């Protein structure tokens, strides 16, 4: 029998809405500290065929670290495998902003999704494009098929003024010869990419290319090769949730990426993308109800990759 995904989403929203509230919004980024913690949305899209949503699916939020999957895709597209000389591809088992692992590993970040790795990826983008910020925005709009996607300058500037740990990571990378551009320029791009705002609807749509072997359904353009798309999904599965990556794979069984804005996007390769937004975060910086909802989703639909 055909699954009614709309009904599945409504059942999930109803059930998680009854759970005891837990977790906090990201207080360390000034603009995110003000977000209403109890907003919720879930959106699923089978590109070109069906889409279903529940909750505040058109309310925009800061995608934060989810942007790291987009910037990684941009660098993979242009540079292919040579990126891995500067960044590893192993789960870190440490917090996303950890400093000590970078020191122990002599300035080569474990993977492109911890902050140190994403800072190296941002550095690559600055070397690849004269206007990396503009190019990233244009791509985000193309991926989602939505010209209204934009940076949130308040979020970006607030983080630039307070992200001392990220500056430390960038300076440490520089001292190891693993940062080519100016620390200030790299951190500016990094903070702007994190400030990209999307809704659950546009976030799910943005990752449709990851269920279409690298082709962007809304523009018809092949962005990644099928092999590059597979690799990006693999890094999302193994590293997308930092020191909770194993638990996410265990509970949900899909590649995904989280952000401290409370968003999570997950991909059913070859079929569907699903986004959830709920700003309360667990101690790993991942959305509590986002993970809960996705676990229920794959349990109800049997869409996990395993
Ligand atoms: O660098 C930071 O701390 C934030 N701009 C991004 C962190 C983040 O989203 C971690 N993911 N859950």
UniProtKB/TrEMBL annotation:
<keyword id="KW-0007">Acetylation</keyword>
<feature type="binding site">
    <location>
        <position position="190"/>
    </location>
    <ligand>
        <name>substrate</name>
    </ligand>
</feature>
<comment type="similarity">
    <text>Belongs to the glutaminase family.</text>
</comment>
<feature type="binding site">
    <location>
        <position position="242"/>
    </location>
    <ligand>
        <name>substrate</name>
    </ligand>
</feature>
<protein>
    <recommendedName>
        <fullName>Glutaminase</fullName>
        <ecNumber>3.5.1.2</ecNumber>
    </recommendedName>
</protein>
<dbReference type="GO" id="GO:0006543">
    <property type="term" value="P:L-glutamine catabolic process"/>
</dbReference>
<feature type="binding site">
    <location>
        <position position="65"/>
    </location>
    <ligand>
        <name>substrate</name>
    </ligand>
</feature>
<feature type="binding site">
    <location>
        <position position="166"/>
    </location>
    <ligand>
        <name>substrate</name>
    </ligand>
</feature>
<comment type="subunit">
    <text>Homotetramer.</text>
</comment>
<dbReference type="Pfam" id="PF04960">
    <property type="entry name" value="Glutaminase"/>
</dbReference>
<feature type="binding site">
    <location>
        <position position="159"/>
    </location>
    <ligand>
        <name>substrate</name>
    </ligand>
</feature>
<dbReference type="GO" id="GO:0004359">
    <property type="term" value="F:glutaminase activity"/>
</dbReference>
<dbReference type="InterPro" id="IPR015868">
    <property type="entry name" value="Glutaminase"/>
</dbReference>
<feature type="binding site">
    <location>
        <position position="260"/>
    </location>
    <ligand>
        <name>substrate</name>
    </ligand>
</feature>
<dbReference type="GO" id="GO:0006537">
    <property type="term" value="P:glutamate biosynthetic process"/>
</dbReference>
<dbReference type="InterPro" id="IPR012338">
    <property type="entry name" value="Beta-lactam/transpept-like"/>
</dbReference>
<keyword id="KW-0378">Hydrolase</keyword>
<feature type="binding site">
    <location>
        <position position="115"/>
    </location>
    <ligand>
        <name>substrate</name>
    </ligand>
</feature>
């Amino acid at each position: 029998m055909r699954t009614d995904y709309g009904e599945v989403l409504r059942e999930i929203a109803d059930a998680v809405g009854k759970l005891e509230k837990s977790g906090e919004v990201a207080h360390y980024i000034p603009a995110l500290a003000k977000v209403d913690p109890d907003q919720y949305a879930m959106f699923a899209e089978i590109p070109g065929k069906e889409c279903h949503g529940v909750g505040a699916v058109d309310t925009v939020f800061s995608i934060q670290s989810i942007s790291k999957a987009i910037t990684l895709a941009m660098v993979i597209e242009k540079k292919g495998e040579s990126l891995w000389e500067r960044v590893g591809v192993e789960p870190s088992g440490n917090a996303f902003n950890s400093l000590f692992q970078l020191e122990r590993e002599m300035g080569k970040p474990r993977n492109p999704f911890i902050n140190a790795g994403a800072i190296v990826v941002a550095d690559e983008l600055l070397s690849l494009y004269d206007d990396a910020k503009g190019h990233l925005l244009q791509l985000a709009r193309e991926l989602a098929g939505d010209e209204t996607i934009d940076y949130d300058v308040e979020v970006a500037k607030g983080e630039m003024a307070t992200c001392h740990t990220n500056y430390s990571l960038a300076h440490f990378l520089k001292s190891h010869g693993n940062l080519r551009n100016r620390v200030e320029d790299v951190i500016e791009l990094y903070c702007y990419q994190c400030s990209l705002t999307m809704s659950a609807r546009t976030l799910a749509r943005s990752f449709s290319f990851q269920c279409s072997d690298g082709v962007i359904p809304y523009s018809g353009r092949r962005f990644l090769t099928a092999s590059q798309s597979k690799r990006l999904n693999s890094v999302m599965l193994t590293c997308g949730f930092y020191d909770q990556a194993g638990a996410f794979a265990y509970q949900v069984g899909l590649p995904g990426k989280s952000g401290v804005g409370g968003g999570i996007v997950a991909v059913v390769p070859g079929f569907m993308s699903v986004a959830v937004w709920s700003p309360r975060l667990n101690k790993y910086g991942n959305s509590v109800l986002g993970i809960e909802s996705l676990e229920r989703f794959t349990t109800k639909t049997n869409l996990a990759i395993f």
